[in-house]
């Protein structure tokens, strides 16, 4: 193994996490409730981007901890609540959503993240916006 290759590998393993492109990104959510008359458009931030992952063809030879599948996930977040207009009195007119303050590459936490590919959803309003 050449010295250049060894140094490149060491540099990549050391600084790969900090050089990832995982960061808060602007995102628009369209929120509707069947009972409410209007659609609410919310601008927020989510964690998005590329994280270094390691996967080996020799999975049987390595420890599980050596095979990391990191995702871009929340480091710090807060929840905000918005009022959906045009809801009848018997309906709860509030919608809470996460706001990413900072992000990190790490294991996916199913307590607050969807860790699998979702079905294709439409992200638009079918009701008038307010």
UniProtKB/TrEMBL annotation:
<keyword id="KW-0372">Hormone</keyword>
<protein>
    <recommendedName>
        <fullName>Thyrotropin subunit beta</fullName>
    </recommendedName>
</protein>
<dbReference type="InterPro" id="IPR001545">
    <property type="entry name" value="Gonadotropin_bsu"/>
</dbReference>
<keyword id="KW-0732">Signal</keyword>
<dbReference type="GO" id="GO:0005615">
    <property type="term" value="C:extracellular space"/>
</dbReference>
<dbReference type="GO" id="GO:0005737">
    <property type="term" value="C:cytoplasm"/>
</dbReference>
<comment type="subunit">
    <text>Heterodimer of a common alpha chain and a unique beta chain which confers biological specificity to thyrotropin, lutropin, follitropin and gonadotropin.</text>
</comment>
<comment type="similarity">
    <text>Belongs to the glycoprotein hormones subunit beta family.</text>
</comment>
<dbReference type="InterPro" id="IPR018245">
    <property type="entry name" value="Gonadotropin_bsu_CS"/>
</dbReference>
<keyword id="KW-0325">Glycoprotein</keyword>
<dbReference type="GO" id="GO:0005179">
    <property type="term" value="F:hormone activity"/>
</dbReference>
<feature type="signal peptide">
    <location>
        <begin position="1"/>
        <end position="16"/>
    </location>
</feature>
<dbReference type="InterPro" id="IPR006208">
    <property type="entry name" value="Glyco_hormone_CN"/>
</dbReference>
<dbReference type="Pfam" id="PF00007">
    <property type="entry name" value="Cys_knot"/>
</dbReference>
<keyword id="KW-0964">Secreted</keyword>
<dbReference type="InterPro" id="IPR029034">
    <property type="entry name" value="Cystine-knot_cytokine"/>
</dbReference>
<feature type="domain" description="Glycoprotein hormone subunit beta">
    <location>
        <begin position="21"/>
        <end position="125"/>
    </location>
</feature>
<dbReference type="GO" id="GO:0007186">
    <property type="term" value="P:G protein-coupled receptor signaling pathway"/>
</dbReference>
<keyword id="KW-1015">Disulfide bond</keyword>
């Amino acid at each position: 193994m050449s010295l250049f290759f060894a140094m490149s590998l060491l540099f990549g393993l050391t600084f790969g996490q900090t050089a990832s492109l995982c960061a808060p990104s602007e995102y628009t959510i369209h929120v509707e409730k069947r009972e409410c008359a209007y659609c609410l458009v919310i601008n927020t931030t989510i964690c998005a981007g590329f994280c270094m992952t390691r996967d080996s063809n020799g999975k049987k030879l390595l420890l599980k901890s050596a095979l990391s599948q990191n995702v871009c996930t929340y480091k710090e977040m807060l929840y905000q609540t918005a009022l959906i207009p045009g809801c009848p009195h018997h309906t709860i007119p509030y919608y809470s959503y996460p706001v990413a303050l900072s992000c990190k590459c790490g294991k996916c936490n199913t307590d607050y993240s969807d860790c699998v590919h979702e079905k294709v959803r439409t992200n638009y309003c079918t009701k008038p916006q307010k």
